[in-house]
TrEMBL record:
Keyword Iron in annotation: no
The name this protein goes by in its record: FHA domain-containing protein
Keywords: Phosphoprotein
Domain FHA: 175-224
Keyword Phosphoprotein: yes
SMART domains for the chain: FHA
SUPFAM superfamilies: SMAD/FHA domain (SSF49879)
Region (Disordered): 121-156
Gene source species: Phytomonospora endophytica
């Protein structure tokens, strides 16, 4: 079953048989979802290491009549569209900044049955990613998603290195890894939960704990709950690999 078919099936279940009647004569959600997929395809950008960055914020402009008619269901529809788009992005192994967000708004100059999709890369805090507005991906070795330099007070030599060479400091104490804004190490990978795993470091020993993530955490190919790791061990979260390095 395709992403669009799963999306339509979820909507039919949500609206309990009123799906066809509700969207008759107005913008059909599957058409919107398909247009969002095309926007992602059209605005792909290649990051360092060969990863593909696509937009994560989509604004759907509807005609005044369509917007008023669908207003009671706008929040639920936006959530389902966001889930469908995240699934589509994940199936292709693409990268996004933070969560996929969909907003349904009233657009100007649109007739009934027409809509407009605007897509952009958003960091989630109102700022644009490195490279300016639009779809500019991180450029260069030290720019990118997540903190590339050790913060103040971090013990020297404790770090996680991704497959594309990015370095993330492991602070003394606890460091949360995830896709959400509250994670200390944020990774733009739709296969990673907002709070995916935790690294505990006491200056000598490093422990990795899965935080009940959807897809689990692997160390050296084995799914783990909590495990002690050593230099050279590989943590796998989603499609991202992180290798522990400790300098003496």
């Amino acid at each position: 079953m395709s992403v669009l078919q799963r999306f339509e099936k979820r909507l039919e279940g949500m609206f309990e048989g009123a799906f066809a009647k509700m969207f008759k004569g107005v913008v059909h959600p599957v058409e919107v979802a398909s247009a969002m997929q095309r926007e992602a395809e059209a605005h792909k950008a290649i990051l360092a290491g060969g990863r593909t960055l696509v937009p994560n914020r989509y604004v759907i402009d509807l005609s005044a009549g369509d917007h008023d008619r669908l207003a009671p269901y706008a929040a639920a529809l936006a959530q389902e569209l966001a889930q469908s788009q995240a699934e589509y992005i994940g199936e292709h192994g693409w990268t996004v900044y933070g969560d996929v967000i969909v907003e349904v708004e009233r657009g100007d100059g649109l007739d009934t049955g027409m809509f407009r999709v605007t897509a952009e890369v958003s960091t989630g805090d109102g700022s644009q990613p490195p490279g300016g507005p639009g779809f500019g991906p991180p450029q260069g070795g030290d720019q990118g998603y997540g903190p590339p330099q050790p913060p103040m007070g971090t013990p020297a030599g404790a770090k996680l290195i991704s497959g594309d060479g990015r370095q993330y400091a492991v602070a003394m104490g606890q460091t949360t890894i995830g896709r959400g804004e509250q994670a200390q190490i944020r990774l733009p990978d739709v296969g990673i939960s907002r709070r995916h795993a935790r690294v505990d470091y006491d200056g000598q020993q490093v422990l990795v704990t899965d935080l009940g993530s959807t897809n689990g955490t692997m160390v050296n190919g084995q799914r783990i709950t909590t495990v002690s790791i050593r230099p050279g061990d590989v943590i796998q979260l989603g499609t991202t690999s992180l290798t522990l390095h400790l300098d003496s």
